[in-house]
Amino acid sequence: MKRILAAAAILLFGLTSAGAFTIAPGRDCQSLGGQWNYIVDPMNTGIYKYQMQLQKPSKRYFADRHFYGDKTTLIEYDFDHAPTLTVPGDWNTQSDKLYYYEGSIWYRRTVDFRPVEGRRWFLYFGAVNYQCMVGVNNNILGTHKGGFTPFWFEVTDVLQEGENSLVVWVNNTRGESEVPTVNFDWWNYGGITRDVFLVSVPKVFISDYRISFDGKQIDIKVSLDGGNCPVTVEIPELGIRKKACTGRDGEVCFKVKASPERWCPENPKLYDIVVSTADDSIRDRVGFRTIRVDGEQILLNDKPVFLKGVAVHDETIGLNPGRCRNQEDARALLEAAKDLGCNFLRLAHYPHSEEMVRLAEEMGFMLWEEIPCYWNIDWSSEETYANAENQLVEMIGRDANRAATIIWSVANETPRTPQRLEFLGKLIAKARALDPTRLISAALQKDKPDFYHPIIEDELVDLTDIISFNQYIGWYDGKPADCDNITWTVPSGKPVLISEFGGGALYGNHGSDSELFTEEYLALLYRKNLEMIGRIPALNGLCPWCLKDFRSPKRPLNGIQDDFNRKGLIDEQGRRKQAFFVMKDYYSSLSGELVVGTFNLRFLDDYRPDYDYKFGGQPWMVRRPAVKAFFEQNNIDIIGLQEVRRAQAADLEEDFGKDWFVYCPGRLSGGEMVRTSDEAVGLMFRKSRFNLLGHGRFWLSDSTEVAGSKRLGQSSPIVTSWVHLEEKYRPGKDVWFFSAHISWSVSENPSLPDQEVETLLAEMERLTGIGRNEFKSSATPVFLVGDLNNTVDESPIQTLEGYFNDARTASPESASTNINTFNCYGKESKASIIDYIFFGAGSAKEYIVDTSSYDPEVKFISDHYPVLSRIYYD
Ligand code: GCB
To answer: 589 C-alpha vs ligand 1 centroid, how far in Å?
Structure first.
């Protein structure tokens, strides 16, 4: 490797990247992506003669000569007859022969070029792993080292009119003094892995701009290359338009007082910005937010924020995963993270693509970005430091305008030595000098004076804004159950972030929760870790390791790992492991996000208990596995059951009893059911999310004791069941649920609904100890998951709606008191069933009705029964 670099230095006469260069939208970028011819060259024959002297320029592969053009001359290569690789893309996953390849590969493509008077051209590479030399028409433009950051060369004077030969020598050999070093836990994907553009700009062009916001003022610094001239910046939506001329340094700064809508995960608002000169213009989208630390808290826009994260490698989801190549690849990862409930991503362990960062910003993820100072690099080498610093500079240079990025991280799991402290100390100082607006961190490791009392004791803590550390209790350290007895000691005074925890499981590998690599083991590991992590003081967030199974040559276990690190919450194909749902539950409970459903399991005559559930008296049948899939795919937290007969209740118990509490008080079980019918409403809720504090039932007015009840003597007395729950991950946070079914036979007794509603409210008051007028403002949420049958206009729906509307009018701040109406069988139908949810401290945000990706049978249920809602409460 050293020798190659020395050779590169001798060969070089062109420029290497310097300063900044933005390819923000609006730039005239011609993609050079597509098929490039390649030659594998493990001996670097394209550079060296047989005794390792440098080849003459005319013999180097940069010369792009052709044997097949003139077969009388000995030329032992010919790109025109070489196979092709897709650019962008890693080479390892494009040919079986290259799967493990580490070494040199030559890439070549031709570029058609027409010069235009007054324009300049740059060749821009998004990333090449790990180092490269770039030549145009046998002129070597320069070299670049560092596999994940962009670089560029001016080619204005090198390109010729017509066809040009672009040759890139790429080498991904690992080296001890490189960054990363020889040992790392991911695939060393080689190649031109990100986009290549030919960028056209005017003579004097906007080389970069930097925007920041301190909560009151927007600062914009614009840099020109090639001369000075007036610059205009516009943010039309904020009514901002400023113009000024650059100074002698080619820069101009604008300061504008403004109060834009803040970017945040819930509302990732972006504004158009246009930066222009008479000849040049770029149009970007930018967000405004502040990020800072106050004592032990991270504040986003001055409010505490909990980082619901996951760590992600830059690798596609698919059967043959490789480096992400485009926005769709990035989107698939981001959507999985969204589904998990994340608002934060650790982009591990090196800078990801600009596309990934921009899309994450649009989708509302806060980001941790990182350079690959990973494990144990050559801390004493000045060259290694210069390389690491260059990667940091290039990463910050590229993403400094991204509101999404809140943390720059300089290292992962590095040893505590004086040399490393000095090295990382310098990097941190550099990062702060380049960007004083963001937080700095590094993923640290624990010390273990004794197993049950791990401690974070690292001098680097004094230099970072956040104390981040990785820990693997239950995997590398002990068993999941050990989490119960572990007490962490973490320095106080700064926010704490768990930057990694986790373990391995092969998707679909089921067994006991004590067997390694089963989904059950991993689910238990997550549950135990989450309980333990909840006891760590000053916790501001966590990042399970990691989102997806990723390729690593360090993971050879046949039949389980097969070259994959199996610590993903989803496998390489995107299939969710059980632990995914544990983590998802945890995040949704932190947000007070609940997926609530109602379900009708009415008994039909031809019921076949081993095979079918029957729904709602409708003429369709649904198989039990499909019902299970429906519950799973929607990740439902709690379900109100309507008209459950004894057989259905038993089925539910059998199908879900392990993971769910199935509470059907009307069921004839242990003599619980005292009325004449076994039909009742019940509640099911997920054990992983809630602890049961109490449960019970009461009857509405449809009893023999209530005169005038049209249900008198009927075989359908209706019970209301209730459960009092505690949130597992928010100890002390309790929640009440009621499942009610209110009269359907009001036409002959218009006062019945009122009586039933009155009974319901009175019982809710009595049980919860919360006055009915306090439901709306109570810190303890009270929910009704109901089935309110409605046959005429004067129905209990109006009664309840009336009640809550009154409450709302009396106290406008109670807008959080909500009633949601779901129409199950079509709104026009007089016989429609309408399901209500009402609650105190919360608000309903979404109905869940997107069934497009469902298995047809599951889709069938959802389409006929779209009664799910996502609601949020504090
Ligand atoms: C770690 C590393 C991560 C590894 C992971 C593992 O601590 O930071 O890169 O992949 O452990 O799976 O061992």
So the answer is: 27
